[in-house]
Amino acid sequence: MKAVDARIPTPLYHQIFLILRGQIVEGRLKPGAQVPGEEELARQFNVSRITARRALAELAAEGLVTRGRGRGTHVAARDHEPPPVHGGVEGLIENLMAMGLKTQVELLDFSYEAAAPDVAAALRIAPGEEVQRSVRVRSLVDGPFSYLTTYVPADIGRKFGRKELGREPLLGLLEKSGVVIDSAEQTLSATLADTRVAPALKTVIGAPLLRISRIVQDRSGRPVEYIVGLYRPDRYQFRMSLDRVRGEDRNTWSASVAPATGEPSAAPRSRNREKK
């Protein structure tokens, strides 16, 4: 097993929880398999039994394991694996539209506010200029998978309201408002679930999340939407197709143009398809 590190701010018990959770989600610990007990975990990770016990308690609280006196701890059985959503670079806008139509959305917050410096920079407006801000959670049958914070220039946002945003995809509302969407730029990184996001995504504080920030532009090049999406990696996967490009001096990989579904799929994990 991976080691834990007392020098980082994440508590030791939660580090152990994340390691075991990853093994369960990825299928290395299958339903019915026995999970190491408190004494064994304490020895493996060089921690106290109290720390090991708390890690197992977190697994049980999330429904990943079952515990019984005299029977030990076992990976809980699941009726089926939750189907992850696949997002792709190719056909970005169309995929997001399809995702909006095939998932449930809950509008957590809707307001107009002064643009913070980072939002103003993304939308290329003056700091303090009014923007529409919304916070939404998207869910599949098995639960929430994304926490989306969106900013739209106020002159565009005034063309639709809370009611429409709570039932229709934002990209569709923008197009209905007369915006001709032309391109998007996005950045992928990782972050941890904080005290605000973790309950909304039904995960634990400190759980790893995929972070995707995206700036959508219209035909004139004006930014019309800035969105920061936080995704549960066990329910959302980012997929890309790669072509091998052979050059005179060196060979490189290049993203190829191929369709991506952008809808729920039963694939166990993301894959980069490499074409020889």
Q: Could you characterize the architecture of this molecule?
A:
With 276 residues, the chain is α+β, with helices and mostly antiparallel strands. The chain has helices at 12-25, 38-45, 49-61, 92-102, 117-123, 154-157, 162-165, 170-176, 197-200; strands at 34-35, 65-68, 72-75, 85-88, 104-114, 130-140, 143-153, 181-192, 208-218, 223-231, 236-246, 251-255, 272-275. Strands 5-6-7-10-9-8 form a six-stranded antiparallel sheet. Strands 4, 11, 12 and 13 form a four-stranded mixed sheet that branches. A hairpin with a 4-residue loop joins strand 9 and strand 10 (223-231). The radius of gyration is 22 Å and the shape is elongated. It starts with 11 loop residues before the first helix and ends with a strand.
**Overall mean pLDDT score?**
80
Q: List the total number of helices.
A: 9
Structural class: alpha+beta
Strand content: 35-45%
**Count of beta strands:** 13
Q: Which H/E pattern describes the elements?
A: HEHHEEEHEHEEHHHEHEEEEE
Strand order of the largest sheet: 5-6-7-10-9-8
- Cα(first) to Cα(last) distance is 35 Å
**Helical percentage:** 25-40%
Sheet with the most strands, sense and barrel status = 6 strands, antiparallel
Tell me the overall shape.
Answer: elongated
Rg: 22 Å
Model regions low in confidence, pLDDT < 50 over at least 5 residues: 89-94, 257-276
